[in-house]
UniProtKB/TrEMBL annotation:
The keyword Cytoplasm does not apply. Residues 10-330 form the Enoyl reductase (ER) domain. Keywords: NADP, Oxidoreductase. PANTHER family: QUINONE OXIDOREDUCTASE PIG3, QUINONE OXIDOREDUCTASE PIG3-RELATED. GO terms for molecular function: NADPH binding; oxidoreductase activity, acting on NAD(P)H. It comes from Chitinophaga eiseniae. It holds the Pfam family ADH_zinc_N_2. This is NADPH:quinone reductase. It comes from the Bacteria.
Length: 333
């Protein structure tokens, strides 16, 4: 098989295309021909050798896929060669998804949502599972007031769709350019609920917009300075969902001083605990919402076809915040 291999931690130019053996699949695994893969911030964080790199077990990065089952192990059920599927492989596959093939436990795999092309379907698993986990563990109510950082991002936009589909509309978020603002507007957020994070004193402007009401839920998908803003506007004994583990020391101080309930969101926690069925089961539920039209598929940008150059370009775009509300995708054609 062909794969894009990371030669060493560092800059985006560390990727090289290389021929590797087709993975040997086990009795409880599917061998999948990958047709498209999507990029996630954890990819470049791993490439840089940051904390996330501890979860690497292959020099081939990439954590989600859309593809076709080539072969099924004897202990698998529900899949056959030729089936179109999606999966959040995380670090549990034979290799990452910057490759033409992968062997993966069948419990992590879900049939492709109806009528979606591979290039769109591949953008669902990672961001979709993160948003779905956040939504389900939050138990937010329609009367709750929410602040979400990075609402136009892959996870943020999925979460906005889920919240609004379930009657939760008092949702404020941030954007830093007109493209992101347009994405949020298309999701149904009015202009008064979209704040420019580049301006001064975001917390003051948010409280002005809410009539000086502190929020019941702060959800951080970005980290850094804006996580401090999320903690600032959170009410006493209210709840904070941390999706990044990139909050600052001041963020943690503010949350402690407010007696906040902190909800840590981690998809790979289930892989570490070897609860692999969580991935397939939750992806199936998410696919059902997509099939029913309850939520719409993510917006994608196909960066290019399978090559080291495409991977490099996607990493640069993610690091420079140039995704503009779209999930970046690489096709294998």
């Amino acid at each position: 098989m062909q794969a894009i291999v990371l030669n060493g931690f560092g800059a985006p130019d560390q990727f090289r295309q290389k021929e590797l053996p087709v993975p040997v699949y086990g009795e409880n695994e599917l061998l999948i021909e990958i047709k498209a893969t999507a990029f996630n911030p954890i990819d470049y964080q791993m490439r840089q050798g940051r904390r996330e790199s501890q979860h690497m077990h292959s020099p081939v990065l990439g954590r989600e896929l859309a593809g076709i089952v080539v072969a099924a192990g004897a202990q698998t059920t529900g899949f056959a060669p030729g089936d179109k599927v999606i999966a959040a492989a995380g670090s549990k596959g034979s290799n990452g998804t910057y490759a033409t093939h992968i062997a993966l436990n069948y419990q992590m795999v879900t049939p492709l949502p109806a009528a979606l092309p591979f290039a769109v379907a591949t953008a669902i698993p990672s961001a979709g599972l993160t948003a779905f986990q956040t939504f389900r563990r939050m138990h937010a109510l329609p009367e709750d007031l929410l602040f979400l950082t990075g609402g136009a991002g892959a996870v943020g936009s999925f979460l906005v769709k889920l919240l609004k589909a379930h009657g939760i509309h008092q949702l404020f978020t941030t954007a830093g350019n007109e493209q992101s603002r347009a994405v949020l507007g298309a999701l149904g957020l009015p202009p008064g609920q979209i704040l420019d994070y580049r301006g001064p004193d975001v917390a003051h402007r948010l409280l002005a917009a809410t009539g000086q009401q502190y929020v019941d839920w702060a959800i951080d998908t970005v980290g850094g300075k804006i996580s401090e803003t999320a903690a600032e506007v959170l009410g006493l004994n209210k709840s904070y969902a941390d999706i990044t583990f990139l909050g600052t020391e001041r963020t943690r101080e503010l949350l402690f001083d407010k007696g906040a309930h902190v909800l840590n969101i981690s998809n790979y926690a289930y892989a570490v605990a070897n609860q692999l069925s969580w991935y397939g089961q939750n992806l199936r539920e998410l696919a059902a919402l997509l099939n029913a039209g309850t939520i719409t598929p993510p917006a994608v940008q196909v960066v290019g076809s399978f090559s080291a150059d495409t991977v490099q370009q996607a990493h640069i775009m993610m690091e420079n915040n140039q995704t503009y509300g779209r999930k970046l995708v690489m096709t294998m054609d």
